[in-house]
UniProtKB/TrEMBL annotation:
Annotated source species: Datura stramonium
PANTHER family on file: MAJOR FACILITATOR SUPERFAMILY PROTEIN (PTHR21576:SF11), UNCHARACTERIZED NODULIN-LIKE PROTEIN (PTHR21576)
Entry protein name: Nodulin-like domain-containing protein
SUPFAM superfamilies reported in the protein's UniProt record: MFS general substrate transporter
Entries under Gene3D superfamilies matching the protein: MFS general substrate transporter like domains (1.20.1250.20)
Keyword ATP-binding attached: no
Length: 508
């Protein structure tokens, strides 16, 4: 439930009208949520000195304040709240996401030392479902008045993360393990569950075609069941441990089959050697460097602009999805947000799945090449938006959602492999600093073009709306060209790092 900022497009148009703000001011609110990541390093420091459950609670309380006060304002419980107050509260809410994500990363990494890439990839993919889940809840509550939907979104954003934090806080702990036994069976089951969850989310996101077959309440209950299914994996592991323990107790201690003991010992040794070798290969790095030296590297700046013209550009599009849908006369904004959320889930999951299946295969490709593969269809999606049909809007949104999620997931391993693990926290925070930068530059530029087109239309008020393809037409062309540039930069980075990845894959 940490992805509270991802459902902003579902109620952004209502916020614009309720607060009587311009398109530029609305974009600055989206920027404020992304800018909260600039202070995300506070969460990292807190996690070094405070219990993880407390860090989780602090993050959820920050979100409660950030979204809760905005809800009270829209519900007329608070009468004096300026635009800059709302801006600051949105910034605070955006920062709360960093605290929750930090705990999630640490728990996954510390408890799965030999499977951390798969564990982190699986767990973080679920953040993309936040918008889908909240939208389903709003639909079940039968809130059809636009202003009422905006209030409901803010209320759920404020209380749901805190509710989940209170439930999970007692369970958060670091398991001290020197060697982790093979967990491939458990992760294999998890991949099946997550793929089924994503498929269900996509199907139920196409609201017009599915609503007749599956009522909203049943749709939400189905999603709830899919979200609870992963609990079966550790429960089954615990049951197997207890069963094997009982079998050992009941076995006659005077009988000892030496051949079976030797076979079991040999098998365990081989498994440990394979896991240690996989762990060593999966975390090979080009060089261990700090932030200052990293900023002097050409590879860093190539990587920085690849991310800026890729994942960040996709996030800016998704932040403006509500306004884009309005200009094209599409009223199903919530369905679009759910669709982008569901495909973003798949996007974050697929890199981990490919790592799990092909990490040591000769068919595996480098991280920069993977990003280039994700950027190519994303470029086409921006140009497809020049078509005025609703089908083009849905297809483009799905493509941008899945590509943005994939690049975001790949970047975690990319930063580690290029610049090392010792300073990963600082280095990756510098890389993702391009998100608020891009959110401000690309978003404000799009808002200015929107206002310019609006001024040329019959609408003269800055608070009014621009209608028609002309509102974002130039923006889509520029975004498509920038995305194509990012693809070229990713290929250049692939060329520069090809020797390293060839060595990493065992010379293939």
């Amino acid at each position: 439930m940490a992805g509270t900022n991802t459902n902003f497009p579902a109620y952004s148009s209502q916020i614009k009208k309720l607060l009587s703000i311009s398109q530029v001011q609305l974009n600055n609110l989206a920027f404020a949520s992304d800018a909260g990541k600039l202070l995300g390093w506070f969460a990292g420091i807190a996690a070094n000195y405070l219990p993880l459950w407390l860090v989780l609670i602090i993050g959820s309380i920050l979100g409660l304040i950030g979204y809760g006060v905005q809800y009270l304002f829209l519900a007329n419980r608070i009468h004096s709240l300026s635009y800059w107050h709302v801006f600051s509260l949105t910034f605070l809410a955006g920062n709360s996401i960093c605290w929750i994500n930090t705990v999630s990363y640490i728990v996954s990494i510390q408890n799965f030392p030999l499977d951390r890439q798969v564990a982190v990839g699986l767990s973080t993919s679920y953040i993309s479902l936040s918008a889908k889940i909240v939208t389903d809840i709003v639909d079940v509550m039968d809130v059809f008045i636009p202003s009422g939907r905006a209030k409901t979104y803010l209320l759920l954003n404020s209380v749901l993360p805190l509710f989940c934090a209170v439930i999970t806080a007692p369970l958060i702990r670091e398991t001290k393990v020197d060697k982790s036994r093979k967990l491939s069976d458990g992760f294999r089951v998890m991949f099946v569950i997550t793929l089924a969850t994503g498929t269900y989310a996509v199907i139920t996101s196409v609201r017009p075609s599915i609503s007749k077959l599956l009522p909203r309440l049943l749709s939400l209950m189905g999603m709830g069941i899919f979200l609870l299914l992963p609990i079966l994996v550790p429960l089954s592991e615990r049951i197997k441990q207890q069963w094997h323990g009982k079998c050992r107790i009941r076995r006659d201690p005077r009988i000892c089959d030496l051949s079976k003991l030797e076979e079991e010992k040999s098998r365990t040794t081989q498994e440990e050697e394979i896991k240690e070798e996989n762990d060593e290969i999966g975390f090979a790095v080009m060089e261990e460097i700090g932030a200052k030296k990293m900023l002097m590297k050409l590879d860093f700046w190539l990587y920085f602009f690849v991310y800026l013209f890729g994942a960040t550009l996709g996030l800016v599009y998704l932040n403006n999805l509500g306004q884009i849908a309005d200009t094209r006369g599409c009223t199903a904004t919530s369905s679009l947000v759910s669709l982008s959320s569901s495909f973003g889930f798949f996007g974050r999951l697929l890199p981990s799945l490919f790592d799990y299946l092909f990490s040591r295969s000769k068919y595996a490709i480098s991280r920069p090449a993977s990003i280039a593969v994700a950027l190519a269809p994303m470029t086409g999606a921006f140009f497809l938006l020049l078509n005025n049909s609703h089908i083009a809007l849905y297809i483009s949104t799905a493509i941008i959602g899945i590509c943005t999620g994939a690049i975001t997931s790949i970047s975690v391993s990319q930063t580690t492999e290029l610049f090392g693990t010792k300073n990963f926290g600082v280095n990756h925070n510098i890389v993702v600093a391009n998100i608020p930068i891009g959110s401000f530059l690309f978003g404000d530029f799009a808002a200015m073009l929107y206002r310019r087109r609006q001024g040329n239309s019959s609408t003269t008020s800055d608070i009014g709306s621009c209608l028609g393809m002309k509102c974002f037409q130039t923006t889509f062309v520029i975004w498509g060209c920038l995305c194509f540039l990012g693809t070229c930069l990713a290929l250049i980075l692939h060329t520069r790092t090809r020797k390293f990845y060839r060595h990493l894959r065992g010379g293939n």
